[in-house]
Every structure is written in C-alpha cells, then in structure tokens.
Amino acid sequence: MRRRPSRYLLVRVLAETVVPEETFRLLLTESILKLLGEAGLAEIDPRLFNWNENASTGIVKCTRDSVEKLRASISMISGSPEKPMCAYVRAVSGTSKGLKTKESWHSGQDQATKS
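Above: the chain's sequence. Below: its structure in token form.
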C-alpha cells in the first residue's frame, strides 16, 4: 500500500497564557469535528508534533489534499470565554525539515521581537 503524500503546517497560537500541547491538540480536534465532522477528521488525519510550549508554536501534519480544510479548522480555534486565544498558520511545507530551517520558531523569537 502506498503512503499518502503529506504537508506540514507551522501553527502559532496567540493567548495570554502558555498553551500546553494537550490543550491545543484537543482544541484542534474539536474544531475539525465541529467544522467537518468525523469524516473530515479522518480525511485530514492531523498529527501534532514539535510543540514549543514557550512560543505556543508547533507543526501539524496532514494529508496533502486537506491543507485548506485544516487551515480553516485552525482559524476557528478560539479557546474559551475565560481564556481567549486564536491560532493561525505561519507557513506550509512538504517536509517538516523545511519548516524548521525556514523559521526560527523553536527559539520563540516572535515573543522576543515584540518587547
């Protein structure tokens, strides 16, 4: 059986507090289910890895044909009224290595430049 081609999305979460990996994973799954249902979740097949808790940044892997559906689901993440947040896609690549070398996301440089 052939492997399905994948894409990797560099995702950033803006929130007042630190967002743990498990929290983002649950919010992402809930967002996909609300927007696209279980069939959409199975089609996208999201995998979160390389989560940087300090920068609230990580890489989400999905199938090549479902990038736009995943982008829409990520943009729908809003947290809760007590802890508002938003998420957005910073970059898309065919390899995770491409994202790691293109962006200095792991060092949390975005937060340092805001000061």
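The longest strand covers residues 6-15.
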